[in-house]
Amino acid sequence: MEQTWRWFGPQDVVTLAQLRQAGATGVVTALHDIPYGEVWSVEAIRERLGLIAADASFGLRWSVVESLPVHERIKIGEGDLSGLFDAYRQSMRNLAACGVTTICYNFMPVLDWTRTELAHPLPGGGTALRFNAHEFAAFDCCMLERAGAEADHPPEVVARARAWFARSTPAQRARLLANIMAGLPGAYERYDIPALRLALARYRGIGRAELRANLVRFLREVIPTAEECGIRMAIHPDDPPRGLMGLPRIVSTGEDIAALLDAVPSPANGLTLCSGSLGAGPGNDVPAIAARFAGRIHFAHLRNVAKEPDGSFMEADHLGGDTDMVALVSVLLHEQARRKAGGDAHWRIPMRPDHGHVLLDDAGKPTHPGYPAIGRLRGLAEIRGVMTALAKVNNLPL
Ligand code: DNO
Fold it and tell me: Does the Cβ of 105 fall within 6 Å of ligand 1?
């Protein structure tokens, strides 16, 4: 697998030199400054490529775009979308013209990944991202005061949510809001409670069927262009894989993935296999999902979560948690071998260590939540060890 690393651009406190020291050769990045819906110009793409290639001794390449964001209006299916589809297609063509041909994106309404705690203490002093079911329910039922929210959480969780809210300070509530908003990448807008209510209101009347129809419409608009210019589109699953705040989520299970891949059955319509996102779903067997859709996996995010009975989960060590990482890496290596034997020039699957704990000298550095240097270096090193051992023992290409 191609070992890659997410780099948020020149503002990222984790540098390209550090990424190289961690052993990655591929860069996963995006032009976060460009507002959603605007074209990524060839000039802007070249500028980023120039930064990545600035020191040729690093031997880095821009492997994957994460993300080329889908405008909210496309998700909602609101109004005349032809300009937004044109812009998306033009960005795809510009990326392809510059040699960047794998695009990760998601179709999660309003929010991207969602956690309630960004610095849950670990034994010995590190920290991890965490999702507490009762805190999320407190946010939904007591802070957002969403109509019907209580019915979306188990009664026992609602009781603990109300208790949390009753004893919480204004500062704790503000922190919970900030934590829930932290998943929105880069410089994108964060919502306060009134703005979030408005954002949710735009989804009134949009259930799973409607959202899925809007995704299929988007795919029908962009996949022919992807085919033309050699782009592989890789949808990122929902994180966590469940409906949140009454919003539908449609990329949460194997069945969801099957539906979207079947709706537009082109190899260009593929998947980002995110083991952490899928792994937070109680019914998801991640290695089995990977095996089922192996031929359509264009990118892999490797990390692990430990689930709890109430729906809470904790970001675990990359080789810890509930997902059998060795089995998953084995599926990916076998898929690579199949592609290579079939003569596919792009047989190597780009993977990155997704998230990492804040460890050692990571503490206190203003990194993006989940993206400290040492925690990810550890994850990448562990996964590299698994890859290398499996490839050697089974005589598979690395
Ligand atoms: C979180 C990431 C996601 C991902 C987007 C892709 O760390 O995995 O934010 O980049 O959902 O569109």
Answer: yes
CB 349 within 8 A of CB 2: yes
The CATH architecture one would assign to domain 2-107+226-240+251-362+370-394 is Alpha-Beta Barrel (3.20)
> Any catalytic annotation for residue 318?
no
Active-site choice (12, 317, 354, 362): 354
| Order of strands, sheet of 117-121, starting from the edge strand that comes earlier in the sequence | 117-121, 127-131, 313-315, 305-307
Question: Which segments of 155-192 does DSSP mark as H helices, in order?
Answer: 155-167, 170-181
Would you kindly state where each structural domain of the chain is located, as residue ranges? 2-107+226-240+251-362+370-394, 117-182
Residues 274, 298, 318, 362: which is the catalytic one?
Answer: 274
pLDDT (tens place) for every residue of the chain, 398 residues total: 999 999 999 999 999 999 999 999 999 999 999 999 999 999 999 999 999 999 999 999 999 999 999 999 999 999 999 999 999 999 999 999 999 999 999 999 998 999 999 999 999 999 999 999 999 999 999 999 999 999 999 999 999 999 999 999 999 999 999 999 887 765 466 789 999 999 999 999 999 999 999 999 999 999 999 999 999 999 999 999 999 999 999 999 999 999 999 999 999 999 999 999 999 999 999 999 999 999 999 999 999 999 999 999 999 999 999 999 999 999 999 999 999 999 999 999 999 999 999 999 999 999 999 999 999 999 999 999 999 999 999 999 99
Q: Measured between alpha carbons, how far is 253 from 250 in angstroms, rounded to an integer?
A: 8
Q: Is 186's C-beta closer than 6 angstroms to any atom of ligand 1?
A: no
Q: Are 299 and 234 in contact (CB under 8 A)?
A: yes
Residue ranges of the alpha helices (H) in 150-250? Answer: 155-167, 170-181, 193-201, 208-229
Ligand 1 in reach of 236 Cβ (< 6 A): yes
Question: Can you point out the beta strands (E) in the chain?
Answer: 2-6, 26-29, 61-66, 102-106, 117-121, 127-131, 232-236, 269-274, 297-302, 305-307, 313-315, 350-353
Distance from C-alpha of 206 to C-alpha of 345, rounded to nearest angstrom: 41
Q: Which two tokens stand for residue 253?
A: 């299970």
227 CB contacts (<8 Å, ≥6 apart)? 266, 268
- pTM for the model stands at 0.97
Q: Is 113 in the pocket of ligand 1 (CB under 6 A)?
A: yes
Per-residue DSSP letter, 143: I
Ligand 1 centroid from CA 299, angstroms: 12
